[in-house]
Each structure stands twice: as structure tokens, then as C-alpha cells.
Amino acid sequence: MRLATFVTITALIMFSSGNAQDLNNTIIDEKTGKEILIGYCDNNGLKTGDFGEYYDFYYTDYKPDKTITSELIILQEGIDITIVLGTWCSDSKEHVPRFMKVLDKSKFPKDHLKIICVDKSKEAEGIDVKALDIQRVPTFIFYRNNKELGRIIETPVYTLEKDMLFLLEN
User: Fold this and answer.
1) What is the C-alpha radius of gyration for the chain, rounded to an integer number of angstroms?
2) Cα gap 153→164, rounded to integer Å
3) Which segments of the chain does DSSP mark as H helices, in order?
4) By C-alpha distance, which of 3, 92, 108 is closest to 45?
5) What does the pLDDT read at residue 21?
6) Model pLDDT for residues 133-157, shown as the tens digit of each residue
């Protein structure tokens, strides 16, 4: 019994530390020589480096519509969101921080959010990004109960919160 417990605890520790290494990885972009995020990322990763400077500015500057963010709170049940972005991309630098502010104001649970950073080929080592059919970044993909509801691709049609409301209501 003790050996099984020890093996289980050891496996959990190894799994946890392995996952931490898979988050917020960086590579050097061959064309620009700049560091970019690649693979799975979290909000802390987005706040670092060159992207972090843009993140702070656009997050602070954006003022989401309070009426709409209140409506979004009610519509979140069963919703998961995947964001695919490039930290090298000007649209990602502008819209991802704003989108994160909309999520914060609408109290969206971060454990239902997946962030994937890609290179300029829209690939990330170890992640099947091709299965997501990403044509442009950023792409915000909305799922309800594992079924895709829709996407905001590159730039919103109206505003991020209005486009999100439209997707969640339909």
C-alpha cells in the first residue's frame, strides 16, 4: 500500500512539473531575431517580453461595454474558449489584451480558456494547430459543450464583447 501511494505521488509530481515546462515557452523568430512565445501559454506569459509591453497598454486602455459584459456572465455555462495568437502579430498585440479584459470583466473562468501561441507558419511544436484550421491570428474559438459555436478571426466585426455576445446568444 505504501509503495503504491509513493508511486502515485511521485507520478503526480513528475506530471505537474512536466506541465509547467510546457507553458510559456519561447523561441527566437528566425526572420526578426526576436523572442516569441510558442505553444501553450497563460496570462502570465502574455505579460512578458515585447508582447507584455503591448499587453499592458491595450489591456489598460480598453473599456468594454459594461452592459454587454454583464450579459456575458449569464451566458458562460458550458463555454470553453481557445485563443490562437502570434506574439509577433500586430492584431494579436492589440486584440488579445482587450479580449482578456472582456473575459476579466465578465468573470469568465480561466480554467475554461486555452491559449496557444504560434510561429509565423501558424504552427506550435507538439500541438495539432492544423486541426483548428487557423488562417489568421488572433483567432478566438468559442465552444459550448465541446461543439464549436463560432470564431472571431483577426479583428472583431463590431467590438470583442459584442461579437462574443452574438456568438453565445446564437
Assistant:
1) 17
2) 12
3) 2-21, 43-46, 49-61, 66-74, 90-105, 160-169
4) 92
5) 55
6) 999 999 999 999 999 999 999 999 9
For residue 28, CA distances in Å to 32, 54, 89, 94, 117 come to: 8, 19, 14, 21, 13
β-strands 25-28, 35-41 pairing:
antiparallel
Q: At 69, which amino acid appears? A: T
The answer to whether residues 166 and 151 touch, using CB atoms and an 8 Å cutoff, is: no
Q: Rounded to whole angstroms, how far apart are CA atoms 19 and 40?
A: 10
Would you list the domain boundaries of the chain?
Answer: 24-169
Q: Is the peptide bond before 97 cis (omega within 30 degrees of 0)?
A: no
Q: What CATH number belongs to 24-169?
A: 3.40.30.10
H-type alpha helices, 75-158: 90-105
Q: Which residues neighbour 32 within 8 Å (Cβ) at sequence distance 6 or greater?
A: 88
Taking each helix axis as running N to C, give the angle between helix 90-105 and helix 66-74, from 0 to 180 degrees, rounded to the nearest 10: 70
Q: Are 147 and 164 in contact (CB under 8 A)?
A: no
d(CA 70, CA 57): 24
pTM summary value: 0.86
Beta bridge partners of residue 127, listed in sequence order: 124
